[in-house]
Design goal:
The structure is a single chain. The chain starts with 8 loop residues before the first helix and ends in a 10-residue tail after the last strand. The protein is globular. The protein is built from three helices and three strands. It has a three-stranded parallel β-sheet with strand order 1-2-3, with helices on one face. It is of the alpha/beta class.
Length: 77
């Protein structure tokens, strides 16, 4: 039984199945739960400023970067 975000169990299972290290992973999301999930997993987090969470709420967190449009991802990956 896999726990829900922000518990890191799902990421641990994925890393094991894909034979990856957490340093090879970045997490992209649009909510505080995504930020907390990435933090619990120990990976970089990028947050879109539109989507599930209101932008003002997201600015309380410190992701690697805020993304304002999809093409902003190209700057980092």
């Amino acid at each position: 039984n896999v726990l829900r975000k922000p518990d890191s169990m799902a990421m641990e299972i994925l890393l094991e199945q894909m034979n990856l290290d957490i340093t090879e992973v970045s997490y992209v999301g649009d909510s505080r739960y995504d930020y907390l999930f990435a933090k619990n997993c120990g990976c970089d987090c990028y947050l879109f400023t539109y989507g599930y969470e209101k932008k003002d709420m997201l600015f309380n967190y410190k992701p690697k970067a805020f993304l304002y449009k999809s093409s902003d991802l190209l700057e980092y990956f």
